[in-house]
Structures are given as structure tokens and as C-alpha cells.
Amino acid sequence: PLRIVALAIGMAIPWAVWFMAKPVTTQRNAIWAAIIAMLLPAIALNGTIFYPEGALQLLLALMLGCILRGMREPGLKWWLWAGVCAGIGQLVHFRFLVPGLAVVVFMLAEPRGRRLWTHPGVWITAALGVVGLIPALFYNAAEGWPAIEFHVIRRPNYDLEPKHVLSLLATQFGVWTPAFFIAIWGAVKHARWPKKDGQRAERGPETLLAWQALVIFVFYALEATVNKKVMPHWPFMAAVPMLPMVPGVLTVRANLPAPG
What we know:
There is one protein chain. By secondary structure, this protein is an all-alpha fold. Helices cover 68% and strands 2% of the residues. The protein is built from 13 helices and two strands; from the N terminus they run H-H-H-H-H-H-H-H-H-H-H-E-E-H-H. Strands 1-2 form a two-stranded antiparallel ribbon. The longest helix has 23 residues, at 120-142. It is globular. The model has no long low-confidence stretch (mean pLDDT 89).
């Protein structure tokens, strides 16, 4: 029965990727982004086992799709839905704190992000995200903080292990597949440092997606240096945010006509 739930989550991820892509790319590229989600092993393997990773990827795509819509549309509807996704994500696993950290980095680093500090929707989303974290806090407080004991005391090895970073990078390069790994980071470069006619161009809302990929991946690369054991699946979430931009990158690199 649990595997049926995992399969349902895995099948929902391409639809969530399409939903996330719609505000920042063409309809055709949004469909291709959903198709790539079914081809990228780090995402497509969801459903084979019941594990939090699939739910986290699904909720991340939905949350980002809601935030992108909230940034361009009046009202608080999309911010409320983003908060629901954030709260459920925290309930699934506290690793969903890392995408929250990435939103904060975006709000500090980007002009578009800095305008959000005075937007009430952001604070509604944050509050709902905290609500989702409360059950885990109560459980850990009642049980003697087992999560902290495991992740801070038992799992780490504070003698730095740079070789773990190389192991993590090699694993991601293979599991994402070399072509998609390169295309995703090419999409990050294009979104974060866009150019038009050889000149620096204005950054769009897709910079939120670039910061998500960067913060999630760098966080776990640094975390790997103090772990006794590399957790190769933890950075898989970083592959999700940039999928909307990957079809455009692959089209340009292949010198194909831009899709209409």
C-alpha cells in the first residue's frame, strides 16, 4: 500500500514541474520540462520505494510555482497555497527548511527578491511553513531530541572530508545523467547571469529557481564534508527548480530553432 502512495507521488511530479514552468517559459517548453522530469533518473526513480524524497520534490515544485504566480499577480491566494506546500513539506521532513533558506537568499541577493520583504504574502507563507514544523518540534522535544542526536552527534565526522564532496559530485553527475547535469547548471548560469546580444540582461523571476538550485546543492555539498557517510539522494531536490529552463538550454546548444 505504501508503494502505491509513492507511485502516485512520482506520477504527480511531472504535472507539478509543468505547473512550476508555466509562469517562466513557453507552453511547449513547460511540457518538455515535465517530460524531462520523467527522464531524469534523480526524479524518475521516485515511486520505486516509499521515501520522503518524492514528496519533497513534488512539494518544492508546487511551492515554487505558487511563489512565481504570487510575485506577478495581486492578492494573497498563491502565497497561501505556497504556505500550504511549505507546511506540508516541513511535516514530511525537516530538510524542506533548505528550500526556505534559498527563498531568504533570493530575497537578500536579488532586487526582485528584496521587494518581497514588505509583501504580506511572504510572511503568510513563512508562518504556514513554521506551522508545519511544529509537530516535529513537539515530537523531538518529548523524545529527547532524537533528530538532533542523530544528525548532529552520531552522523557527522567533524574531521573534514573533502573527498566526500568529490564523491557527491560524481554521484550527481551520474544519477542526473551527464547531459542533464550540464544542462541544469547551464540553465542556472543563464538565469542568474543572463545576456542578450552579448550584453548583461535584466534578471527575471526565474532567478528564484536558480537560487533554489544553488543553495540546495551547495548546502549538501558542504554538509557532505562533515558526514561519515555521503547521502547521495539529498541533493536531488536541486535538480527540480531549473527544469523549466532546461528545454531552452538544450534547444540553443543543439542549434535548433527556438520553439514557439
